[in-house]
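User: I'm new to structure prediction. If I give you an amino acid sequence, what do you actually give back? Let's try with this one:
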Amino acid sequence: MTDVIEQDSGLSELAVNLNQVLIEHLAASEKLTTRAWRTAFEDVPRHLFAPRFTLPDNLGGHALDIADAAHRTEWLRAVYHDEALLTVFDERDMATTSCSAPSVVATMLESSQATEGDAVLEIGTGTGWTAGLLSHRLGSEAVTSVDIDPRCVAEARERLDHLGLNPTLAVADGYLGYPVRAEYDRIIATASLRRVPPAWLRQVRPGGTILTDLRGDFAGNLARLTVNEDGSASGRFLPERANFMPLRSEEEHLDELPELASRAVSGPGPHRRTNLGPVALRKWEFAFLAQLSMPGARAGRIRIKGGPMYFCLTDPRSESWARVEVDADDAEREVTQGGDRRLWDELETAYQLWTRLDQPSPADFTIKISPDGGQAVTLPATDKQWSLPL
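Assistant: Good question. You get back a string of structure tokens that encode the predicted 3D arrangement of the chain. For your 390 residues, that looks like this:
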């Protein structure tokens, strides 16, 4: 299908122009600041890696395919929009893989500190576009990329071959890294996790770095850590933001009890008024601290058929839950809770703490991993410390 663009001079010219406009946008917004990465964006065009996809809901949520001649121009314009493109869905019709938004890809590459001479492991091959950008700058022999989905790996290999790029691609559980090609100077994860996998620290040379999106149900943020001689690592959360899909791995599997979700939206329990609505978690800075403060808590919205929508907090381990009606008036908002943990009480306490600490943002927090594997997040200049996983 990549030949379609090459054989149509009008589409080929449009692709070049759209890519250039995108690159200028990324440069103007200071997402793309290094000349070598800019050249990679020019020479490794995104449309080769997204022949078919579904747009996110904010762009209509409909599918586009290069094979659909009647909508080929729309497809191409959507490719060069600065949005994630959903490319693989599971049996529940939930997206599991995407072609990340160009601004996010640029942020990851710039933040990775990867440069010529570095050996890099990418966790999450996806469409292969990021692996292609890395290979263009660092050389194919320096790049290893793994994905748990054999189809993603096979399609990425075909697309990269078309450009004469031949990084090492493998079907593997990214949580375990890829020891066959270790040691690495950089590990870059294009999927989110709740903690840093211990295997990654063993596969990065001392002085090398790990860049990953540490994220739970509430929020998360990019973190960059440097690995030390003793097997420990330390770093901080970055000002830059990215939001990746969760890593698909047996090691990261999270159980949610169906009956617990049912209780959360309909079960009886003590209730009271609350001044804190679900909208508070839209504040990225507060949601990040709340995520640290409430280990094991899950969050989601559930609509009762023919009834209201509830924002629910659950904790499968203690079988605790809390619910608040999403659209309730502030003066009439009630929270109902059940189980041993009072999850909404904990959320209110976290908000009070965040306010008392002068509303810190993720970039104010540091992260440290000890040689024995303990992972802690700290807010410097305070006595506050939280443990991972999120």
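You can read the tokens as a compact description of the fold. Here is one thing that stands out. The mean pLDDT is 93.
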